[in-house]
Amino acid sequence: MDDPATLALSPWREVADGVYVAVAEPARVNLGLVVGSTGALLVDTGSTPDQGRQLRESVASVTDRPLRAVILTHWHHDHAFGLGAFPDVPTLAHESVADRLVGPEALVDAAELGLGPDELRLPSRGLAVAASIDLGDRRVEVAHLGAGHTEGDLLVVVPDADLLFVGDLLESAGPPWYGPDSRPHEWAATLDGVIGLMTAGTRAVPGHGQPVDREFAFEARGRVAAVSGELIRLVDAGVAEADALAAGDWPYPSEQIAAGIAPGYAALAGRGVKGVRPILPLA
Ligand SMILES: [Zn+2]
Predict the structure, then answer these.
(1) How far is the CA of 237 from the centre of ligand 1 (A)?
(2) Which of 35, 252, 265, 283 is least surrounded by Cβ atoms within 10 Å, i.e. has the fewest?
(3) Looking at residue 151, what DSSP letter applies?
(4) Contact indicator for 125, 98 with CB cutoff of 8 Å
(5) pTM here?
(6) Ligand 1 centroid vs 136 CA: distance in angstroms?
């Protein structure tokens, strides 16, 4: 996957006044650029430091304003592994991201991309709830409204453009992806928060695919809630975790959900699942 051809970066496309999206291979991830009168910021970094450098150079084709910040919507490789190209720029991610980037999953992903552990740079600042970034004539807000796709999903809000970057909390190129680090039972509530920030005219740039509107977010919210509900039904019916994927009635193709069964079941431990019933205190 480190063949340069597979790390191609599309030209920037202006999706709102001074707001641009480029698509990076091989994951076809959407990268964002917001330009204000005194500076610019990037949303996500691509899959490798080389791709991050390519991204950084490409910003010069759009603006000569200095980069004020790089924001990671979450820790996954296609969004975060380009961070090594930005050692001199403040980089912001949810406070859980630094641990994830030195964790076993990240190291496996890095090895698959031909990267050593020392090539994964950590964000310079971890965010618990919210931050605001001043770009001169516009302000960009960054918020963690809750977990879902990962424990540390961030939202980037460009109020004057009525536009959000939502990372992989929403995807329009295909169904959302449930991983071992997903929070299936919290995802819908987090999307409620996202929807609460949207009007009928708001556009949300997902991690993958074309920008979506509030109706799309409603629809996704319903399906994500249905995944959680089905997990609860299976647990309450005593279906073993190993049988859950086959036994469940899912709103998405089962391969998208498979890795989310384990965290979905783990979060329900104590509801009486056979084999994971907690031992009651006896005194
Ligand atoms: Zn992701």
Answers:
(1) 31
(2) 283
(3) T
(4) no
(5) 0.93
(6) 31
